[in-house]
Amino acid sequence: MNRREFLAAAAGGLAASALGGYVAGAQDHKPLRVGLIGCGWYGKSDLFRLVQVAPVEIVSLCDVDKKMVEDCADMAASRQASKKRPRVYHDYREMLKEKDLDMVEIATPDHWHALAMIAAAEAGCDMYVQKPISVDIDEGKAMLAAARKHGRVVQVGTQRRSTPHLVEARKIIQDGSLGKIAFVEIYCYYHMRATGHPPDTAPPPNLDYEFWTGPAPMRPFNRIKHPRGWRAFMEYGNGIIGDMAIHMYDMTRWMMDLGWPASVSSNGGIYVDKESIANISDTQSATFNHGDLQIVWTHRTWGDAPDKRFPWGATFYGDKGTLEASVMGYTFKPNRGKEIHKDVTYELDKYPEDRTEKDLEKNVAPAIRHHMQNLLENIASRGKPVADIEQGYMSTSSCILANMSMALGRELRWDPQKQEVIGDEEANKLMRRAYREPWVHPAAERV
Prior knowledge:
The chain is an alpha/beta fold. The protein has 2 domains: about 5-160 and about 365-390, NAD(P)-binding Rossmann-like Domain (Rossmann fold, 3-Layer(aba) Sandwich); about 160-345 and about 390-430, 2-Layer Sandwich (Dihydrodipicolinate Reductase, domain 2), CATH 3.30.360.10. It contains 13 helices and 18 strands. A 10-stranded mixed sheet has the order 16-15-14-13-9-12-11-10-17-18. A 6-stranded parallel sheet has the order 5-4-3-6-7-8, with helices on both faces. The radius of gyration is 21 Å and the shape is globular. About 50% of the residues are buried.
């Protein structure tokens, strides 16, 4: 059995036969060799969901935080079937030089996604890349080009496309039960923006802060940044619209089979919490114009959600009914007929380790497992997964365009063929952030 045949057999038996990381009938064959770059919160969440559904061997782990990578290695040794402890690396380039990985997961802070992903593509690895795929549009363009050039299968971590109850909700839209949909609200009202203004300090001894900063601007270390708090700073990401809107905008595009928006406009800023060290907006709205369909994003990191059942989600308004959808469930309210509601599916009895795994979002674990299964099926077939890198590029770039619009104070019209803002050279210059030396931006040449 060759590698492709093995993967096809494994993917076909995942749902029914997964047990302890192995698939019945496949134990005698070489498992998929996996590496992880970025061993923090979601890196581990993704990696150990993969272990639950596929016959993999975690071979290599990489992180610039020595404690983080060592802790992840200990956990991997206890969770994978072989009980082997993975090799650990400080530099992802050294890990990829080994040329012994079939698949790499990338779960670094956003400003590191592009360089690590392109290097993994060049090393011949298929990938799972966390969202948003990039911090600027030209990075994303280069990532897509690298995946296609090297023939890599890449799944983006927009796992709403694999969330069981949302797959069901999508059918309500697809079968016409909502009728004509001309307006979709997408939103997040979580109080997730960092608050306070602690003093800058020296970085902890376990963290290589120079390498962690990488191509981003060098700023003094602050304890809010690491781990996880880097999302509060525009130097390393794209704020809440880049972190949370991408999920709901991508979900809407998938549910309605949409491509690029014709234009994007946005406004907002720091209106309430002006004392925090965080420099991302605390209030922002954006309109993604799809012709006779308007998709409007809103986030506030203060005040209450209009509907406390749906603090982060999407509401689809059709002329035959309304559909509310979130990570926790969906509610379909037809103009005529009975309301339909479905809650998120937990799988705690089937995967009891979910109960005790630190920081795991238990409601999201099934979606990650399905997302991993879809990736494996497409690695076997060399097809495009449900959240293919091109889809991730479109959703990521659209959210970045919203931030660009907010910064410039005007609507931006997008040309999907030329991959640029129409008639706005100032905006097009914002499609590529400056890189800190010696790191070099991977941007593909513009068409």
